[in-house]
Amino acid sequence: MPCKRLQPRFRSGYPPAMMDRARSGAGDRARVAATGDGRIRVARPTIFDVARVAGVSSSTVSRVVNGHPQIRDTTRQRVQAAMVSLGYVAHVSARALAGGRSGVVGLLAQGVDSAFFLGVIQGVDQQVSGAGLDLMLCTTHDRREKEAEYVARLSHGMVEGLLIILPRGLPDYVEQLRASQFPFVLIDHDDDAPGCNVVNAADRPGAAAATDHLLALGHRRIGFITGTLNMGSTHQRLGGYRDALVAAGVPLVGELVVQGDFLEPRGYEATRELLALTDRPTGIFASSDAAAFGVLRAAREAGLRVPEDLSVVGFDDVPEASYVDPALTTVRQPLRDMGRSAVRRLLELLADPDAPVERIVLATTLMVRGSTGRAPGADGEPDGPTGGRDGPGSG
Amino acid sequence: MPCKRLQPRFRSGYPPAMMDRARSGAGDRARVAATGDGRIRVARPTIFDVARVAGVSSSTVSRVVNGHPQIRDTTRQRVQAAMVSLGYVAHVSARALAGGRSGVVGLLAQGVDSAFFLGVIQGVDQQVSGAGLDLMLCTTHDRREKEAEYVARLSHGMVEGLLIILPRGLPDYVEQLRASQFPFVLIDHDDDAPGCNVVNAADRPGAAAATDHLLALGHRRIGFITGTLNMGSTHQRLGGYRDALVAAGVPLVGELVVQGDFLEPRGYEATRELLALTDRPTGIFASSDAAAFGVLRAAREAGLRVPEDLSVVGFDDVPEASYVDPALTTVRQPLRDMGRSAVRRLLELLADPDAPVERIVLATTLMVRGSTGRAPGADGEPDGPTGGRDGPGSG
DNA sequence: GATCTGACCGCAAGCGCTCTCAGTCAGATC
DNA sequence: GATCTGACTGAGAGCGCTTGCGGTCAGATC
Q1: For residue B104, what is the nearest residue in chain A, using CA coordinates?
Q2: End-to-end CA distance of chain B
Q3: Nearest-angstrom CA–CA distance, A219 and A308
């Protein structure tokens, strides 16, 4: 004898008799059971309740819910009416377990504490909710060992696809994801990631454009404040800085490159170090706008005028960059676009698991504002065009 | 004859024979099946696989996973070894469906596009991942009708508890949540929400303190730029502004209160309107730092010096507030603390559904910086203490 | 030695849904 | 009128897990 569907069980040990009563009677809005202390607990209607009210089987309800084509119009309407009258809402976990869509995509990142993250998540959010999906946000807080666990848990019955903002290096689990054909997209990953779908910004050309801009203004001693070394973009930006110097025949001086962490306090400190050099730089290029704000603060404290005594360039183009005085010259990174593109790509993968691998590089743009000017002592006109290096690049 | 556990079914129609082969054999790392095109697909081990390897029943594995006490130590170790060797990861949806914990909390907000949100989510993230939970982020993008749907879906088998950043008013679904005893906490909800757990900041005392500060500096015509009118905090801040004026016997002038939206562009516009008044204000209090940046920009453009010609106060104390020049006097709102407190409260509710309702109000602090000074023409010393109004308040 | 006790563990129902397979039945075809 | 077709629907197994209930068995008790 095959399995029979039995009476549902309540979570908190209600007597079966009460259950029967609650379950019976078509047309009731929801199963209701009184708890011991007189409160009322409402059990959400299931697909079976809807089926009963509509006078069809649960399979038919499921088909209606999922937009299956072969359903008679009258039946569909009856079911929909029943769903509305009962206030039916699909149980996501059950659906996911039974092999349907969970409608959730995961976003894995180190943390939520930067303008970079905020921009990306805005784009992701927009695109995800536009597609009627939900977003699961997971932060690893730099605990590398948590990443693999997260990925395993998420990819195992929790989300349909994964967006991953990775630090440098390609951990094992990425290979695992690839092997298991789980749909995922890497964001801002500059390393070589064979077979992976990646979305990132043209960091290197952007940084080169910024450096070019300073060079064209006559700057020869240009300080550079890096980001955290575990991020791929940090190295790409440093690469762009170097590219431009090399192209201009300006030697790369070690003392002018200072390690930073994308944040303001370190930008401030780094600038104090740079300004303490015997032959201080006349321009400073920071790897983030936040760090550039630190540069501005340190300059102010040192009594230097920007841009007359010191030119400053940032990276990101956060909204505040144009609010400060002088407004910050910076490299615009299309953060929201990156988020959006990543989601779009993920949706494509969801629709077609065999879609060919893509590597999307979004253009960066040099935004010239008031914080950069001719180098002190530099004479005449700028010695070349500026701001022309931006655009999609090889990363 | 009772139900027998049958062979597992693969999602994509693999032949049963392959399944049998894949399922059998204790000690294999995972069930593996080749797809048509030669790729390999790895099925994650289930609790049954672990049970088989450990030589126990699936119930025992479940008990070990969930830290059930009555398990012999040797058994526990055997099971744990099996889990490790198989790389077992619990299936969250299945667990949630079966009545266990999903380990996910939901955060419902209008959008992710403000410093307010970023601060709150940082706190939430920190506390959530500290507790070993996951975060599900849902944004309604101001589509009110989506909220109820979200809440229904989330509270129905998806998350264990809900954090809700609500605009003004108390929608029906909140009452529904309360009725169904689903654990949830409202964040930054200033309206009366009977029976709801709420975490918010002392907006009103904070705004009063900021206004007091300007009054003490001799300002009498103080402009006020509001936030979006659908937020409770907007009205609380306006209330605090009014409180302080009334207490100082300064008349509230309609033309000095301009509607804003918490964002920079509108802050800029609003300031231009204020500065165009015949008798322009000598101080402007904006309902957010972003809006205050707009005030600074408009002042700069109008050739006004800050604070000599115009004093400016913001609200929030975002990091940038102290980076700009002059640094912004503002009301610090403990955004991260709000996020953290909300999660803490939710965890308490999760642990004890009958915990008494709490309304947590976190203190705001006036941060006096360079953007405020004595009113032009005001003589002598400040006419009263400043900055003394901050602290926990009634909201 | 019989009974009791309690720690430990297994059985199997059930969570709410999806999806395959097997009908059913009205209309078309021969 | 018998057969076929295809649109539509129902039955029910199964997803991976939790958990109540009951069984087992070694040691304690009488």
Answers
A1: A136
A2: 64
A3: 12
A24 sits within 7 Å of strand D by its CB: no
User: Who's near A7: CB < 8 A, 6+ residues apart?
Assistant: A16, A19, A20, A23
CA of B62 to C1' of C11 (A): 14
- Chain B residues whose CB is inside 8 A of the A137 CB are 125, 135-137
Q: What is the pairing mode between strands B329-332 and B365-367?
A: antiparallel
A278-333 confidence digits (pLDDT tens): 999 999 999 999 999 999 999 999 999 999 999 999 999 998 898 888 899 999 99
Residue B380 banded pLDDT, cuts 50, 70, 90: low
From the number of C-beta atoms within 10 Å of its C-beta (0-12, 13-18, 19+), residue A342 rates as buried
Q: Tokens representing B138?
A: 């849902």
Instruction: Name the amino acid, one letter, at A53.
Output: V
A152 close to A173: Cβ distance less than 8 angstroms: yes
Burial class (CB in 10 A: 0-12, 13-18, 19+), A390: buried
**Coil vs helix vs strand at B106:** strand
Residues in chain B: 395
The Cα–Cα gap between A163 and A123 comes to 12
pLDDT at A125 over 70: yes
pLDDT digits (tens, 9 = 90+) for B277-308: 999 999 999 999 999 999 999 999 999 999 99
Write down the residue that tokens 């009555």 correspond to: B70
- Which of B39, B44, B136 is the best substitution to test chain A (most A C-beta atoms within 10 A)? B136
Contact A238, A226 (CB under 8 A): yes
